[in-house]
Write a structure and sequence with these properties.
Length: 601
């Protein structure tokens, strides 16, 4: 063959699904397709394309289809070039249209992908079951209904691959109810991929409890082995909810079913245990990985140790990483600087900030500056933190100003707190916690009129306060509590236990920190408001429903107040319990009346 004599065929040959016994499928077709598949770069492809045109072989539908597919889908391909080939085809079929649609989806060009699909329909080329899974990847919310209607009209509504793609498409658009509707109609057609799609739809929309419910349902209804993607989403759900028991089940599943070592899954397991309050278990897995540890694994370990207040340990892990020959990236340094901030290691933090720039050539991002503002501010060096904000090479964002505002609240710095708040409000984030922090600064200074004005401003802007809530997992069920919660079935036992706890706390010298109540009300009313904070309800529930001496692990959606912190330290002594609380920022590990944060948080 002339083409073969001009371009050396690659060492590997790709034989398409076409039937070689088809009388129209010749050895010439097979050789041409193999040469197209063997192209290693765009220049080689252009040269081969030129020879095909020169020999008049472009009219062969198999050959021209392979040209379009290879140019559109190869890593070295070009959609612009593929489009130029496609336009030269007199009568493109579904294979060529599908290849173009897949190419545009691969290039993240959803608009062109959908336009190509519409051209396909307009020209009378019938879509097939390979068309819709790709088209659905390009769909936005409104387009999904139209495509779904066409799927039903053309009789693909019971094709399992199309149904799975519909579940995933609705999930990406935030329409989880529609995902579930498609999933429920599948009945006996459900495959592991179907479960994977519906679990991913919930995970992608932060519906973590539902993820675990679906995983539980899947375990009962099918004996099929879960895909890796299912395990990843389940571990993510456990990490967000602090559901360590379900995390252990997922871990056991990984050990039984995922053969070989997978560094990504192992890293996610470490992250899950750390986020569920089991730092020691996460670090044990980290050590067991040995040489399989990569930069991401070290980043998870360093950030985890930092979040528990273990700044010194985080720096030791970082030094170990450098000795292993791995080069740190900007994410690793965020963990290092956070570790210094959480442990109050100001001098070390300043030194590592310089080391990042000078030794490793990493230009500080706004996240690194945020860590440094937090480091200085939490240490009481508010003026230095403010000067750093003023001299940053980029415009401060809401995280920077919020960090400074939080430090002003911690150290009762009213003037700079007002400056930070003004800059924060100019960014129009409409975050209730920002206004509440400013109100707290005013309350500490007994400027009650300013407290009132701040709350009135919140109301006028319709900024609702997110209620503080706490989660605790008992017997593989995640229980959620809000302050003054009276909805739980065990509410009578919970409040009776609270009363007993308070009685014993008096003998330990506990006095409620009523400065946390930002209202000008009587002292008794302040104490009453503090009495039923969500964290205290979660602790009472756990004491009722867990074995004596077993650890209690709680997750919160907001920062722990100083009263709950003092309260929990004493409870850990009285009831001889280890209590781990994950708030919005860090972990607090209470044991024998002390906390891992060393009261520095």
């Amino acid at each position: 063959m002339v083409v073969a004599s001009i371009i050396t065929p690659p060492h590997h040959f790709f034989i398409p699904n076409d039937n070689p016994l088809d009388p129209d499928f010749t050895h010439r077709d097979q050789e041409c397709i193999s040469l197209i598949k063997g192209c290693r770069n765009i220049d080689e492809f252009r040269q081969l394309h030129g020879h095909i045109l020169k020999l008049g072989y472009f009219s062969n539908p198999r050959c021209v289809g392979s040209l379009v597919a290879e140019c559109a889908l190869s890593a070295w391909g070009s959609m612009e070039y593929a489009q130029s080939i496609f336009r030269q085809i007199d009568d493109p079929g579904s294979f060529e249209f599908n290849a173009m649609i897949r190419g545009y989806v691969k290039d993240m060009n959803s608009k062109r992908a959908l336009a190509t699909y519409l051209d396909m329909v307009k020209t009378g080329v019938a879509p097939d079951n390979y068309t819709y899974p790709v088209v659905l990847k390009a769909c936005a919310s409104g387009e999904g209904n139209t495509i779904h209607g066409q799927i039903v009209k053309l009789g693909f509504s019971e094709d399992v691959f199309v149904e799975n793609s519909l579940i995933a498409a609705y999930g990406r658009c935030g329409r989880v109810g529609d995902s579930c509707a498609v999933f429920d109609r599948m009945d006996l057609r459900k495959t592991v991929a179907s479960w994977s799609a519906v679990i991913a739809a919930h995970a992608g929309n932060g519906m973590w409890t539902e993820c675990l419910d679906l995983f539980r349902q899947m375990s009962f209804e099918t004996s099929s082995r879960a895909e890796e993607s299912i395990v990843v989403n389940v571990l993510s759900a456990c990490s967000h909810l602090g559901a360590v028991e379900w995390g252990r089940i997922a871990h056991a599943y990984v050990l039984r079913n995922l053969l070989g070592h997978n560094a990504a899954v192992e890293t996610l397991l470490i992250y899950m245990y750390i986020r569920c309050g089991r730092l020691e278990k996460g670090m044990r897995l980290f050590r067991e990985m040995g040489r399989r540890r990569n930069v991401e694994t070290y980043s998870v370990a360093i950030s985890g140790q930092a979040s528990y207040g273990g700044g010194v340990e985080a720096l030791e892990t970082f030094d170990e990483m450098l000795r292993s020959g791995l080069e740190p990236d900007d994410v690793v340094y965020v963990g290092v600087l956070n570790g210094c901030s959480r442990a109050g290691l100001v001098d070390e933090g300043l030194r590592y900030f310089d080391r990042m720039r000078i030794e490793h050539g990493i230009e500080p991002t706004i996240q690194h500056y945020g860590c440094m503002v937090d480091l200085l501010g939490r240490a009481g060096r508010i003026r230095e933190a403010f000067d750093l904000v003023e001299t940053m090479p980029m415009k401060p964002n809401n995280v920077i100003w919020r960090s400074l505002l939080s430090s002003c609240k911690l150290h009762r710095e009213v003037a700079l707190g007002e400056v930070a708040a003004r800059n924060l409000f100019r960014l129009n984030t409409k975050n209730a916690s920002d206004y509440l922090m400013l109100a707290s600064i005013y309350a500490q200074a007994e400027r009650w009129m300013d407290v009132s004005k701040t709350r009135v401003k919140m109301a006028s802007m319709r900024i609702g306060q997110v209620p503080g809530s706490s989660w605790v997992e008992v017997n593989k069920k995640v229980q959620r509590f809000v302050s003054n919660d009276m909805s739980h079935p065990q509410r009578h036992e919970i409040y009776e236990t609270l009363h007993q706890m308070e009685w014993q706390l008096r003998f330990e010298g506990y006095r409620p920190d009523t400065s946390q109540v930002l209202l000008l009300v009587e002292e008794d009313e302040k104490k009453q408001r503090l009495r039923s904070h969500s964290q205290k309800l979660a602790i009472a529930f756990s004491l009722i429903n867990t074995l004596q001496g077993s650890p209690i692990r709680i997750a919160r959606n907001v920062r722990m107040c100083s009263d709950c912190h003092k309260y929990t330290k004493l409870i850990s002594v009285i009831y001889e319990r280890e209590i781990v609380v994950r708030d919005r920022n860090i972990f607090h590990h209470f044991r024998d009346g002390s906390c891992s944060c060393k009261d520095y948080w």
